[in-house]
Amino acid sequence: MDRMKPWGPVLVVLCMNSLNSTVNGAGGGNNEDLGASFIFGDSLVGAGNNNYLQTLSKANIPPNGIDFKASGGQPTGRFTNGRTIGDIVGEELGIPDYAVPYLAPNSTGKAILYGVNYASGGGGIMNATGSIFARIGFQIDYINNTRQQLDKLLGPSKAKDYISKSSIFSITIGSNDFLNNYLLPLVSTGTRISENPDAFIDDMINHFRNQLTRLYQLNARKFVIGNVGPIGCIPYQKTINQLKENQCVGLSNRLAMQYNRQLKNLLTELNWNLQGAIFVHANVYDLVMELVTNYAKYGLRIDTHRP
Ligand SMILES: *[C@@H]1O[C@H](CO)[C@@H](O)[C@H](O)[C@H]1NC(C)=O
Ligand SMILES: *[C@@H]1O[C@H](CO)[C@@H](O)[C@H](O)[C@H]1NC(C)=O
Ligand SMILES: *[C@@H]1O[C@H](CO)[C@@H](O)[C@H](O)[C@H]1NC(C)=O
């Protein structure tokens, strides 16, 4: 969602830190070349899949893209003025082209050796969040297709090595499960009445465990998983709850923090249980909260121009 645009710079810093720790952590000094970046998630990392979907969640209109050099300032379907963290991770890996959106016509042949972007604006962990493609479960169905294409391109044995040793899997998901599902008054009042926050978050974590395990079964080994940011501080939440400039929605942030605690435990569990896999936890929440709180320190200001 474009309302999360201001998070861009923070996520960038965050992901680069995470990536370094992944690279260094991988195989204890046995530095294999990382050649591909497979990107999953929501609008925070989307690169254009929604252009090919019937959805209201689209970003291929200005001013999106105005600072994106690769397109000469034209919108691409990224929900931001510039690059996403996914793009920057690719640059850091030295990949010559950004990971192509899975649904783009040129996501075929050798282009997929640099990775593929499956992310979709509006996406979430739960089935009830977002459109069909946007759900992470479907994104994993699609990498299963890519996986089979890689087998054909490289041969099964090399393809397996490529995925497990030379590829990084970054996943940025979860915010929409709260914003556009659990916390959405019209759609999910029923869910909220029938399911308390503990049960909803347990459900999310259980789904996510299955989804990450599926990626592992497809030979993914190097993971960077972002947690949910302070969603109570985004303009949309502040507006619908009629808060003042320096306030954030307590319930939304508490849900995010509760999910984040359980996510951290999940990643510890998976690091332990899934042999040879490395799950790096990217702490979006604290970084963004620092920006929201001490924005002036980072050269940001409150825009008093209201439409
Ligand atoms: C795929 O097509 C897009 C849009 O035309 C282009 O910007 C991008 O560089 C292409 N990527 C690859 C890997 O061919
Ligand atoms: C979610 O959707 C997938 C695909 O349609 C289905 O296989 C799965 O059982 C669903 N999960 C739940 C909990 O409804
Ligand atoms: C990938 O697809 C194959 C063939 O359709 C299927 O047997 C397998 O269970 C799928 N794997 C995952 C992890 O979804």
From TrEMBL:
Q: Which family does it belong to?
A: Belongs to the 'GDSL' lipolytic enzyme family.
Chief location: secreted
- GO annotations of cellular component type: extracellular region
Q: Which UniProt keywords apply?
A: Hydrolase, Lipid degradation, Lipid metabolism, Secreted, Signal
Q: Which residues form the signal peptide?
A: 1-25
Quote the Pfam families the UniProt record gives: Lipase_GDSL
- Source organism per entry reads Hibiscus syriacus
Q: Which GO terms describe its biological process?
A: lipid catabolic process
Recorded GO terms, molecular function?
Answer: hydrolase activity, acting on ester bonds
The name of this protein is GDSL esterase/lipase
Subcellular localization, as worded in the UniProt entry: Secreted
